[in-house]
Amino acid sequence: MDIALLGGTGDIGEGLALRWANDTDHTVIIGSRDVEKAEAAAEEYEAALGDSDSEATVDGRTNEEAASRADVVVTAVPAYHLTDTVEAVAEQLGDAILVSPAVGMKHDEDGFHYNRPGVGSVTELAAKAAPEDTPVVGAFHNLAAGRLADLEAELDWDTIVVGDDRDAKATVSELAEGIDGLRALDGGPLANAAEVEGLTPLLINVARHNDGLHDLGVQFH
Amino acid sequence: MDIALLGGTGDIGEGLALRWANDTDHTVIIGSRDVEKAEAAAEEYEAALGDSDSEATVDGRTNEEAASRADVVVTAVPAYHLTDTVEAVAEQLGDAILVSPAVGMKHDEDGFHYNRPGVGSVTELAAKAAPEDTPVVGAFHNLAAGRLADLEAELDWDTIVVGDDRDAKATVSELAEGIDGLRALDGGPLANAAEVEGLTPLLINVARHNDGLHDLGVQFH
Lengths: 221, 221
Known about the structure:
By secondary structure, chain A is α/β, with parallel strands linked by helices. The first copy, chain A, has helices spanning 11-23, 35-49, 63-69, 79-89, 122-129, 145-148, 166-177, 193-197, 199-209; strands spanning 2-6, 27-32, 58-62, 72-75, 97-100, 105-107, 112-114, 136-138, 157-163, 182-188, 218-220.
């Protein structure tokens, strides 16, 4: 499958790109508003993969070009860039599945808190900005980017997948489970995304308050 | 230590009572508004412990009596009874630590959702209702009652402990870790309770949408 990572020069984009390139046969396309940044990141990721057995190639493109070439388009951008990013590639999406991993958070002296948008969740913001016939799936909200990008690190994490299109959710779950040590769990429809997104500030708070814990994910059992 | 479980006839109360009675030397006091219900539950829990090696006794009292005898008072009541329950025992709390495990949820056709109270979290509702000098700690929010009450079942779960009083939090963490298979993690101050409470509806949604998963808890790593 061809996977575009819009904003793939950022930390969650880097982690997903490296894992998919290393663990699967999918083609990974890094998108950025700035094609030179995308190309530089793609080269950097290929170099990071040099030590592994992977023969994957990673390409850098503009977000629009990346979206137009992909079966699955992941918006690996901060929540406040999400609507703009989706609108910018709306005409290129074609039959692609749109995947949103973004979480809105605010930070005060106590810790990190979930900053829930009026439409219900950040994932639903993506759905609102997307063309009506584009299936939108929420996934990868709760993955610590640092550990994800460290190919030496074992994950043993779960990721919750939410969405209203059963086939799109199955495709994204399969992509997720292509990453070694990642299990995809069904979180139900898109309307359940807020509970998934709200786990991310909790992971950060727990990492900040417990010695020896950092770059946390969770397992459900 | 003497632990009172107010509303200890309910499912989370049963689970905590059985685990503490089975796994530790603490004295467990079941509180209820109705002393006969408390006594009946205490007898039932002792009978359930009969198969184990425990020599623990479990007593049943009114909530007020239970609170007056305890070092740690756990409000094992639904969120909508929390304020009333705390106010009813306010004069009996003395130097006790108050522990709130309650979570507010609503349910629609999509799934379970966190129902965040205006004061920020259900745990902060307990703090608001408690006497000013009573240390309030949030813990045990994310434990599936069914598995907790099944002494044959292994837990391997984490519970997040939040609060503004460092000593009280340490005491509650120690109580939590007295239960086999339960690890206490520091979630920071009381103001971080909402992110902890919000995990409970996610656990329910994931259990509902994935075959073979039920009575879920989490591990952070």
